[in-house]
Specification:
With 362 residues, the chain is an alpha/beta fold. Helix content is 35%, strand content 15%. The longest helix has 21 residues, at 181-201.
């Protein structure tokens, strides 16, 4: 797969780019390059329980798959899951509809994706955010699955350093949907970034909601009262920056911020919240980006051109698969020196001079 890299400069801040990933691939197929069989290609996609309008995880993947289908001269067949109980049935229905490639969104679909792929070896599967290794032996459980993985700890490390430097309270917070590796990787990278800031500056900024092993979780990925209460409990401990990890639960964090009556900055995940959800524009400091739209686009496009590659893709700072969004409305609120330090830290991570640990670090 081609490695898509994009660099978006932060306006008004010299010598810094906090890059927003999501550039077009190196080569765009022209209108005349679609194969004769492209119109017969049937790409399909199933969401997790967050749905395709979650302004985050599912939406990015959907946009990438739709773009690829459009360029291939075909139409994406998609189905939304209302709950985890829908996953198996939705996959069965897509197989019965003759799908050639099925994209499944999220680690929660991993077991059902493996089961479907094993039963249907002629179908190609693209699994977002999971290695398809449910027996944890270090190998994929089905050869016809392409895992799309993202070492978001690297970008979250930058966000943690930024949050620590921005915080006036000396306390920043985070919480997640469930304590799965694809969720805690954000929280752990964030904490590592705060710890690095403390080591560099001799400060003692606290991280509320994650201790490096366990922390605050809502038990699911819905925007509901449980998520709002979880956010409130963290906010009540005095944080002035909060990182919710888990699709729509950020909406509950916003409600808790509004109820607090305090100025608390939000950090988004997966997509640039400033762009995908305008209601966040006054409070979103930055977002930790996953280039899911680009990697899904490339995987589906390759499949439609009979070039499906089942090798796992891992997004990093180096290949642009993960990154930080621009500061947008916070450009004038963040010390330019801090912004420059974050940019330098990004280059140091890419160069291997600063180590960020995660289950995807290798």
């Amino acid at each position: 797969m081609k490695k898509a890299v994009a660099l978006t400069a932060l306006a008004g801040v010299a010598a810094l780019t906090l890059a927003a990933c999501g550039a077009a691939p190196e080569e765009e197929p022209g209108a005349g390059t679609t194969s004769a069989a492209a119109s017969d290609f049937v790409p399909c996609m199933v969401s997790d329980e967050g749905g395709f309008d979650d302004k985050s995880f599912n939406q990015l993947g959907f946009e990438g798959a739709t773009k690829a289908a459009d360029e291939l001269g075909t139409e994406l067949t998609s189905v939304e899951s209302a709950s985890a109980a829908d996953y198996k049935g939705n996959l069965e229905s897509l197989v019965s509809e003759g799908c050639d490639t099925i994209v499944t969104v999220g680690f929660a679909l991993s077991a059902d994706t493996v089961e479907s792929a094993t039963a249907n070896p002629e179908v190609e599967y693209v699994l977002i955010d999971d290695a398809a290794d449910n027996d944890f032996d270090g190998q994929k459980d089905a050869e016809n699955i392409k895992p799309l993985l993202y070492n978001t700890a690297e970008a979250a490390f930058l966000a943690g350093y930024l949050a620590a430097g921005y915080s006036e309270a000396g306390k920043v917070g985070t919480f997640g949907g469930q304590n799965f590796p694809t969720v805690s990787i954000f929280m752990d990278g964030f904490k590592q970034g705060v710890d690095h800031y403390n080591a560099e500056k001799g400060t003692a900024v606290e991280v509320i909601g994650w201790d490096g092993t366990d922390g605050s979780f809502t038990g699911g990925f819905q925007a509901n009262e449980t998520a709002k209460t979880t956010a409130k409990n963290i906010i009540d401990q005095g944080v002035d920056v909060i990182l919710p990890v888990g699709g729509p639960i950020y909406q509950s964090a916003i409600a808790a911020i509004e109820d607090s009556g305090r100025e608390i900055a939000l950090i988004g995940v997966d997509a640039d919240f400033y762009e995908t959800d305008p209601t966040t524009q006054e409070i979103v400091l930055t977002s930790i980006l996953k280039g899911m739209d680009v990697s899904v686009y490339e995987a589906v496009l390759a499949a439609g051109q009979d070039e499906f590659d089942a090798e796992a893709y891992v997004g990093t700072l180096e290949n642009g698969g993960v990154d930080l969004a621009p500061l947008h409305n916070f450009e004038d609120k963040v010390d330019p020196t801090l912004v420059e330090e974050v940019a330098a830290l990004k280059e140091a991570i890419i160069a291997g001079e600063v180590e960020v640990t995660s289950y995807l670090a290798e």
